[in-house]
Amino acid sequence: MTDEELWRQVRTGDDAAFGQLFERHAQAVFAYCLRRTGAWTVAEDLMSVVFMETWRKRKSVTVDGSQDWSLLPWLYGVALGVTRNHQRSRTRYKAALGKVPLPDPDGDHADDVARRVDAETQTRAVIAELEKLPAGDREVLEMSAWSDLSQAQIAQVLGIPVGTVKSRLARAQRTVRGALVEEAL
Amino acid sequence: MIKPDIPQLDPMRLQVRKHALLNEISSKPSRRWWRFSVPATVLVAAVAVTLVLWTPTNQDAYASWTAEPRAPGDLAPVLADCGKRLDQDDADRGVNGPDWPAPREVSVVDWRGDMTMVLYTGPQSASLCMRTPTGVAMSGSGNVKGREPLGDRLFADFAPQLGMTDVNTGSSVQFLTGRVSPKVGKVVIGTEDGLEVTATTDNGWVVAWWPSLGKPKYVRLYDEAGGVLQTAPIPVRVR
Asked: Which residues is B176 bridged to in the sheet?
């Protein structure tokens, strides 16, 4: 089923359809949250928050009838908001997040831990460079580099004209290109 | 490209998160939701409307009232202001506010005098936003587990109706919300004190207000051609 077909069911309160959309997009949302925050467990929580917020606001999300409509731009938009205010977002859903079982410590092998630490270390180095950018430029660059969204979709997510996306992206790329070569490329 | 290698979440972990999410969104509301919903709603609405409409500098808030709705104006600022109140309801949900999701569907908008009313509806709830040049008030009700179908009826009003009087100025106001059949083109509410108010209808919903505490006494329903379909006493209430 397409996102559009599933979403029409979600709007009627179908949580099974919502579960399918979660399986389809959760990894992308998690990766975006991890890249924004640099913290694995925080990103996991924020991924859940993004989907809880999306469910809560499901009546606000309408299908525009375009071909290949995807829920992903909306999810990125929500993810941007919750990562901007991630402490407040997690506090708001504290009770729900507290019900999520912790990872099984026996299954947390050394390789897996090392993998997480490496990911966090690399991501934080990039974040440190990106924090030197103005917030608007940074968000455009992150969305462009870390999602598969088109510039038109990024404009939609961020609520700015496409021309502004292009100009911010060009400016941000000029600023960070040199600094990020060693850490991220 | 800025793409440090990001490992994906373990599939098992993803399933844990998915099931926790689905459990959360399908969990049943607490009993507290039923116990306090209506009284708290009415209290909040009464206080808010009094503050907005009967401030000392705004004693003639209803001077511009008309029995017929006026032409629609710019809806965007109205929805922006009302949306903030709904957002606040959601932010306070279960703590300082109602324990149901704020409804977001705009069902009907009534333009009358200085006040614009927007009725938002959702599967479990309805919220009436009242916006004047001096502020915004919100009255909500919830706990409807599946709204009762209108069936063959042409009209049904909602309980409780909201009415109040300001003790300082003696000004009063009464609101009515309800549902109406698509067969109906126009709804006129007659009140105990002799007013006849043309309600606004859209999407199967009806709203009206009038500047008195006269209870709604009867409803007269017209078809699109202007013929009278029915005159019935009020209340004709549903959930």
From this structure: B208
Which of B42, B114, B122, B126 is CA-nearest to residue B78?
A: B114
**Coil, helix or strand at residue B183:** coil
Higher per-residue confidence, B142 vs B52 = B142
Segments making up each domain of chain A, as ranges: 1-102, 114-185
* CA–CA distance, A100 with B19 (Å, rounded to integer): 9
Give the start-to-end residue ranges of the domains of chain B.
Answer: 31-238
Decide if pLDDT at B158 tops 60.
Answer: yes
Helix axis angle for A135-146 and A162-184, nearest 10°, is 70
- CA angle B191/B194/B197 to nearest 5° reads 55
pLDDT given at position A171: 87
CATH topology of domain A1-102: Rna Polymerase Sigma Factor; Chain: A (1.10.1740)
Q: What ipTM was predicted for this assembly?
A: 0.79
Q: Which among B21, B24, B49, B41 is positioned nearest to B143, based on CA atoms?
A: B41
Range with top average pLDDT, A118-127, A129-138, B214-223: B214-223
- Please list every residue in chain B whose beta carbon sits closer than 8 Å to the beta carbon of residue A88: none
Between the alpha carbon of residue B44 and those of residues A18, B38, B41, the distances in Å are 34, 10, 5
Report residue A159 CA to chain centroid gap: 16
Residues of A whose CB is below 8 A from B17: 22, 26, 44, 47-48, 100
Q: Which residues contact B195 (CB under 8 A, 6 or more apart)?
A: B67, B189, B210, B212, B214
Edge to edge, the sheet with strand B135-141 lists B105-112, B115-121, B126-132, B135-141
Share of chain A above pLDDT 70, in %: 78
Nearest CA-CA distance, residue B198 and chain A, Å: 30
Q: Which residues of B touch A (CB under 8 A)?
A: 1-10, 12-14, 16-18, 20-26, 90-91, 101, 103-105, 122-123
pLDDT above 60: residue A107: no
| B16-34 per-position pLDDT tens digit | 788 888 877 775 443 332 2
Most confident listed range (A105-109, B8-12, B120-124): B120-124
- Is domain A114-185 given the CATH code 2.60.40.10 in the classification? no
pLDDT of residue B177: 85
SS3 state at B195: coil
Could you count the other beta carbons within 10 Å of the beta carbon of residue B65? 17
